Amino acid sequence: MASPFPRLTAPLCAAVAAVLAVLVLAGWDPLLALDARVTSELHRTAHAEPGWTRFNRVLTDWVWDPWTMRAVLLVTVLWLVLRGARRLAFWVAAAGIAGTLLQQGLKALVDRDRPRWADPVDSASFAALPSGHAMTAALTCGLLLWLAHLRGVRRAVRLTVLWVGAVSVAGVGFTRVYLGVHWPSDVVTGWLLGFAVAAAAAALWRKHGVRTPWPGRR
Fold first, then answer.
1. Spatial contact of 128 and 114, defined as CB atoms under 8 Å apart
2. Are 205 and 92 a contacting pair, CB within 8 Å?
3. What is the radius of gyration, based on Cα positions, of the chain?
4. What spatial distance separates the first Cα and last Cα of the chain, rounded to whole Å?
5. 199-202: long-range contacts (C-beta < 8 A, 24 or more apart)?
6. How many CA atoms lie within 13 A of 186 on its CB side?
7. Please, are residues 99 and 136 in contact by the beta-carbon 8 Å criterion?
8. Could you report the per-residue pLDDT of 125-174, keeping only the tens digit for each?
9. How many whole angstroms separate alpha carbon 142 and alpha carbon 8?
10. Dihedral through CA 197, CA 6, CA 14, CA 20, nearest 10?
11. Which end of the chain is more exposed for a tag (fewer CB within 10 A), N or C?
């Protein structure tokens, strides 16, 4: 089963993410102005709609939290081990760890301030770029989609993974900006890097992995 990621997905996503990070570091006014305008407008909406804001906090803190996503990935790794696909389990775990290390390293390197509000509706710590929520969701959902294709599951299952993943990735990105704890460019950079790591894992597996990673399947 072919990978769901085209061959150039990883380098293209990484390149665009790098450009965004450089523009942020350089203080490119058009990007920073767009970030400020979108974030300010959503912040006003968050204050005007407290019920919707509480719902978004539940989604971002529990449903799509990075630790929730990592738990999903851990369960997947354990399932692979139990199925006898230990090499693939190690590969998926290594991709998850690599993504986390990349995320934290870039946060420390760029050290971008988060939005600051006199009347915040939520709070977050550490640097802003890339968004850890967005990157972890994109990486996790990307890996799950790749595994579904690699397994050769039914089309209906692959479509379910695709749509649930798309909603999760888009949804968590929206919550981070809506709640005023990230700039839009933080989220986009996180999405791009998450997909880049997932696509790189898929490409490297295709190059170096075994042809039939699932015991009993030929």
1. yes
2. no
3. 18
4. 11
5. 199/3, 199/5, 199/9, 199/10, 199/13, 199/142, 200/10, 200/95, 201/91, 201/92, 201/94, 201/95, 201/98, 201/143, 201/146, 202/3, 202/4, 202/5, 202/146
6. 31
7. yes
8. 899 999 999 999 999 999 999 999 998 889 999 999 999 999 999 999 99
9. 15
10. -130
11. C
Residue where the block lists tokens 């990621």: 5
The pair of three-digit structure tokens given for residue 95, joined into one six-digit string = 């991709």
Nearest alpha carbon to residue 146 among 158, 137, 135: 158
pLDDT along the chain (218 residues), means of 10: 82 98 97 98 96 97 97 97 94 97 96 96 95 98 96 92 97 98 98 98 86 59
The residue among 152, 135, 122, 2 whose CA lies nearest residue 70 is 135
Rounded Cα distance between 48 and 42, Å, is: 10
Q: Enter the tokens of residue 128.
A: 């802003």
Task: Report the distance separating Cα 49 and Cα 68, nearest Å.
Answer: 26
